[in-house]
Every structure is written in C-alpha cells, then in structure tokens.
Write a structure and sequence with these properties.
The chain is of the alpha/beta class. The protein has 26 helices and 23 strands. The strands form six sheets. The chain has an eight-stranded parallel beta barrel with strand order 3-9-14-17-18-19-20-21, surrounded by six helices. Strands 4-8-7-6-5 form a five-stranded antiparallel beta sheet. A four-stranded antiparallel beta sheet has the order 1-2-15-16. Helix 9 packs parallel to helix 10. Pathway: Carbohydrate metabolism; glyoxylate cycle; (S)-malate from isocitrate: step 2/2.
C-alpha cells in the first residue's frame, strides 16, 4: 500500500525531496513537521490547511510582488531626481516625494481599537528581549527572563562601579556593595513607613504605601511598584540571607515582560531544514515543552520553561506568569524561500508562509494544548518588520484577515507589531497605523535598519557623514520623537506598546544604566535589551520612571516636523584626512566580516561580535545593512575606491581571525584565499550595495549561505 506521502506525489523510492500538497511542492521535512506536529490537536485537517495556504499564496503572492515593484519604482524616481539635481546637496524635497506617492496624505485624527491585549502589552511598561528562534537554549533563557536576580545582575557585571568581579570566589566587599545598592533601590521604590530596608529584621514589612504589599510565596515577600513586581527572597539558611538581619538572600525583579521570538534578522534560515527547525522551536516554546541540554562546569544540564509563580494574598491566591509573554517576529515582504514552491517551481514569499504557520502554531496556546498559558486574553502577537509605507501595512492586515479565516480564528485574534524602521514608514507613520488600527499592538523604532534605509534611499544625494556622526544627525531626534508623539495621538496609551531599540553593548551595563533610562523617560513603554541580565537592570528604569505620567505629559506635545525627519545626514563638503577615511573603512569592513563569517560558515544570525576595538557588540542584519550601505555610498561618490575595499578586506580578515582564535568552530578567512565565501559575501554586500533591494543584505547572505551548505 502506498503511504499518504507517496499518494500525494512523493517518489516511492524517496528520491524526491518534496511532496505535492494542494498544487504546491512542499519540502518533505517541512510537510512532515506541519502534519505531524503543528496541526496536531488544532482540529484542522492537513488537506484543509494546505488548500488554505495554496489559496493564500495565489491571492497574496502577486500583490506582494507589486508592492516590491513599487519600492523599486519609487527608488528609481528618487535616484532620477538626484541625478537631475546633482548640485542640490539635499535629499529629495517633500513636495516631490508627495508628487510621486512616497508620502501620502495624513489621515484624519483617529484612535486604534485593538482589543484583548494582555496586560504586558496594554498596561505595564517594562523591558523586552529579542531572541533567535534557532537557538533553543537562548530561547528558553529569554522566556524565563520574566524574573531575574538583581543581586546577580549587579555582582556579575560592570553595572555597580565599572568593574567586573575578580577571581572565582565570592568577594565579600563587592557583595556588600551589591546589597547596599539593592536596598537603596528598595528604599526608593517600595519604601518602609519608617527607616530603611537596611534595618529590616524580618516579618511582614510595614510599607509607606500598604497597597504595595501584594502577598507571599513561602517566606518571600511580593511587592509591586509602577505595575511591576518585586520579590524579596527570604532564606536565612543561605550564605547571603544568613548574614542579613532580615534574612534577605536576594531581590528578584519582574524583568523581561515580553520576548520577541525572532524568525528574521537574528537567524540564518535559508532553506526548509532551517525553517522546520525554527517553527519547531516556536512550537516548543509556545507549548512550554521545549528543552535544551548543555554542559556547564563539566556538568550536563537540561533547561526548560519556568512554571508560573503562586502567591498567598489576603484575597486568596495570586498566580503570576513565570515566563515572558511571547511575541513572534515573521520575516518581511522581500524574501522567498525554497521550502515551498508553486507548481511552476517558483519559491513562495516567506512572509506569507510565516504568517500561516506561526499562527497555526500559536493555536496550541489558544486551545490550551501546552503546559503553560502564553496569552491570557486569547491573542497571537506577530511582529512584522521592514514594511515600507501604509500600502504594505494594509497588505499585512488583509493577509492576517485571510489567515484568521483559514484557521477559523475570530477577527483580529492575530495582533500586529509594526516595526517603524524604514524611512517611508516613519514618514507616513500615522497612515501606517491607521491601516492596522484594529489589530496593532506596538510600534517600535529600529534605528539600525532606519539608518540603512536612510542611506540607501538618498544614496545619490551625496556622501554621508561618518557612522558615529549619523547617530547625532537631526533626523534621529525627529524620528524618535515622532514615534512617541504619533503613537500617543493614535491612542496607544493603555492599549498598545510604544517601543525603542536595542542597547547593543551587552558587556557595558554601567553605561546602559546611565543612558537607557532615556527610553522610559521618552514615554516609551518598552525597549530592547541584549540579555536576561540586561533586562533585570533595565527593569530598574521602569521603577524609577513612571511611564504613564511621562505619556500624560507628552500627549499634549505637537508632532516633530516632517521636514526634520527628512533631513538627510550628508557630509556637507567635509574634507576627511586619509587616516580618517581609512579608519572609517576599516571599522565598517571589520564589523561586516565579523558578522558575516559566522552567518556564512556557522549559520549564526546574531551574536556578540568584537568591534575593531575588541568591544563586544550585538550584531544582526540591521547593523550589517548600515555598514555595507555606508561603504557603498562612499564608493558611489568617490570618497573611496574598490582598491580601498579590497585592502581593507585583507587587513580586517586577519583582525577577525585573531579575534576568533579561541573558537574551535571558527575557520580562519585570511588563509582561504580568493575563494573564501565569507569574504566573497562581504565584498558583494559592499560593491553591489547600491543595487541590493532597499539595501537589504538577505539576498546575498542567503545565496552564499546556501553555497556554503552545499560544500
């Protein structure tokens, strides 16, 4: 008897790597995962799912391509304006951008109507993590980062005084400083009616505001401030608690309220095997049955999702989540993927595939099929990146409507997070929000991609400032201000998140504590951090800043002028020295190679990469986009030439090889000669940067990674 797969079109001898499903050619690995795992328990039959997906692809594929064609047409018109106005030394003017449809009319005032969002989205301000879906251990760490030790975060980083702990033993003096810092924090956020937490001797504390005392978990005390919980760990049998007058062994903070499980910029998913692994991890974390085995200190360990926390209160029992609320970031509209092909062999748009399969997987949470609950309001949270303007947002809205119909979900079950990271989106932000006003749950500035698109859009306007100077350019402040101002004007307060971008230096926590408080002070309800430890430290900012009060103050502001946002960061005739130019080129090339070599050789989409000064920075495709576009711009305007790039590639390959000398999985580049694939990819990203769609790096990376996988 033929198996079901064979009956559907697979080769009986197993030679065909695809199976036929509703006219689609689906990779066996992906088809097997969907049918055996993703569909299990959802009540959706395989035939119905594949038929529905085939319909989505047929309906939305051509419209997706039309939107990409529009991007190219608008860019061509902007390029033509710059050629015709080569002496202008500015970006294309607002009137011209309106004439060609790059800018659309501002919508009439409106308020979003998003409903059934969880409190972590609508009510409480706090830190947000972004984690690559392909790394199960990191994924579990991020999900479990809902709670974290303030003592550990202070002791193990430079947050306290700019130094790191020395030696392997416990440093009593450093520990005393940690405890003093933490108790001063308690005095500030949950003060006692009299005295200091340093004088606390045990029992139920008498707080200045009794409403801040919530309950207990065993001897532990649960307090709340600005909507965030603080658990004071009481354990007199522990080395720390045993020496403390009140038995306080630790202070645990509610830290990463939300975590974006990322299928996009932080992963290298180029084929069906990668996509199946990504979807399987998303399923595992949604169901809370994902585990990760690893070795630590010579001991084999298994990590799994934390359970919820239960507290005794005056009213009975309070259950608090033990894990972050999980959001999932799909890919953007650009890329196709060979995991599924149409009957004529064309790869389908990956974003359409992601929309259907990630929502299908999230149904396991809606139906209570997992060990723990993710959304307590029955919502699915999908972050959609790299959309250009309101028409692309409207496309996503319609696509999500169709996915809901396909899966039998109530309208607007699938919420959408709009990444405000492309120039045409930030310039038309209100119209973009209006296009998804019934389901939008967040907007989030993405400085890195936004800078990459800024450079690409105005590539022909002239040479750009050096990267460090671009960060201080006029449009940046307007961009960050407009994000909050427009979000508040559209009714986000108390209903949806307004987010800010990543702190990219995971080892510089003292600097983060000093600087990142600016995000809640801006009125943003969340901001990205690079690690669970950073989430704990950033959580202290949301205790020290009442975001609701800040939003109330900013709600009356006028919106920063569009003209400021559209000001291009041009160099304005700067005459750099040869040393300054070489320094900038080396900095860019080193960053490109340091990231690309892991992407191509090891399939690592996000990692801590040493910069040219050996400072570890979190790198993903957004940072790569800036560096490659910046060099492409300088090449375009003759600031540098191809020989400068080739020389820098040779020099920086040796630098990156040295920086990775301790990595057993690393393959040195310099010795591989002209056929070294990471160097080949880096060269293409720079020399062909102007021709890459919107300056994105994915097409080159995917092509060379597939070549590397085939070696």
């Amino acid at each position: 008897m033929l198996t079901d797969l064979q009956a559907q079109g697979a080769s009986p001898d197993g030679g065909d790597e695809t199976v036929e499903r509703a006219g689609l050619r689906v990779d066996r690995t992906l088809a097997g995962f969907v049918e055996a795992e993703a569909l299990s328990g959802t009540g959706i039959e395989p035939a119905a799912f594949w038929s529905g997906l085939a319909d989505l692809i047929a309906r939305f594929g051509p419209r997706n391509q039309q939107l990409l064609d529009t991007r190219d047409e608008l860019q061509a018109k902007i390029d033509a304006w710059h050629r015709a106005n080569s002496s202008a030394g500015t970006g294309a003017p607002e009137a011209f951008l309106r004439e060609i449809g790059y800018l659309v009319p501002e919508p009439s005032p409106f308020k979003i109507t998003t409903a059934n969002t969880d409190s972590e989205i609508a009510e409480v301000a706090g830190a947000q993590l972004v984690v690559p879906v392909l790394n199960a251990r990191f994924l579990l760490n991020a999900a479990n980062a809902r709670w974290g030790s303030l003592y550990d975060a202070l002791y193990g980083t430079d947050a306290l005084d700019g130094t790191l702990p020395q030696g392997k033993g416990y440093d009593e003096e450093r520990g005393a400083k940690v405890i003093a810092w933490a108790k001063a924090f308690l005095d500030e956020t949950v003060p006692l009616k009299s005295g200091s937490w340093t004088d606390f001797t045990g029992g139920n504390p008498e707080l200045a505001d009794p409403a801040q005392f919530i309950g207990q978990r065993g001897d532990n005390l649960l307090l709340r401030h600005n909507g965030l919980h603080i658990e004071i760990v009481i354990d007199r049998s522990s080395p720390i608690g045993g020496k403390d007058a009140g038995g306080i062994a630790d202070v645990e903070l509610e830290a990463a309220l939300t975590t974006i499980v990322d299928l996009e910029d932080s992963v290298a998913a180029v084929d069906a095997a990668d996509k199946a692994d990504a979807y399987r991890n998303w399923l595992g974390i949604v169901r809370s049955d994902l585990t990760a085995e690893f070795s630590k200190g010579g001991e084999r360990m298994v990590r799994s999702a934390n359970p919820d926390r239960r507290y005794v209160t005056d009213g009975g029992e309070l259950v608090l989540p033990g894990r972050s609320l999980l959001l999932v970031r799909n890919v953007g509209h650009l890329m196709r993927n060979p995991a599924i092909r149409t009957a004529d062999g064309a790869e389908v748009f990956e974003g359409i595939m992601d929309a259907a399969i990630t929502a299908l997987i999230a149904m396991h949470d809606l139906k209570g099929l997992g060990r723990n609950k993710n959304s307590r309001t029955g919502s699915i949270y999908v972050v959609k990146p790299k959309m250009h303007g309101p028409a692309e947002c409207a496309f996503t809205n319609d696509l999500f409507d169709a996915v809901e119909d396909m899966l039998g979900l109530t309208r607007n079950t699938i919420k959408v997070g709009v990444m405000d990271e492309e120039r045409r989106t930030s310039a038309n932000l209100a119209a973009c929000i209006e296009a998804v006003k019934t389901r939008v749950f967040f907007i989030n500035t993405g400085f890195l991609d936004r800078t990459g698109d800024e450079i690409h859009t105005s590539m022909l306007a002239g040479p750009m400032l050096r990267k460090a100077e671009i960060k201080q350019a006029q449009w940046i402040k307007a961009y960050e201000d407009r994000n909050v101002q427009i979000g508040l004007a559209c009714g986000f307060a108390g209903r949806a998140q307004i987010g800010k971008g990543m702190w990219a230096a995971p080892d510089r926590m003292q600097a983060m504590l000093a600087e990142k408080i600016g995000h809640p002070q801006s009125g943003a309800t969340t901001a990205w951090v690079p690690s669970p430890t950073a989430a704990v430290l950033h959580a202290t900012h949301y205790h020290r800043c009442d975001v609701k009060a800040r939003q109330a103050l900013r709600a009356g502001e006028g919106i920063a002028p569009l003209s400021a946002l559209l000001t291009v960061p041009l160099a304005d005739g700067k005459n750099w020295s040869d040393e300054e130019i070489r320094e900038e080129v080396d900095n860019n090339v080193q960053g490109i190679l340091g990231y690309v070599v892991r992407w191509i050789d090891q399939g690592v989409g996000c990692s801590k990469v040493p910069d040219i000064h050996d400072i570890g920075l979190m790198e993903d495709r957004a940072t790569l986009r800036i560096s490659s576009q910046h060099l492409a711009n300088w090449l375009e305007h003759g600031v540098i030439c191809r020989d400068d790039i080739e020389a820098a590639l040779r020099r920086m390959a040796e630098v990156v090889d040295r920086q990775n000398a301790g990595d057993a999985a690393y393959r040195p580049m310099a010795a591989r000669g002209p056929d070294c694939l990471p160097i080949k990819a880096a060269r293409m990203l720079i020399l062909e940067g102007r021709a890459q769609p919107s300056g994105y790096t994915e097409p080159v990376l995917h092509r060379i990674r597939l070549e590397a996988k085939g070696e």
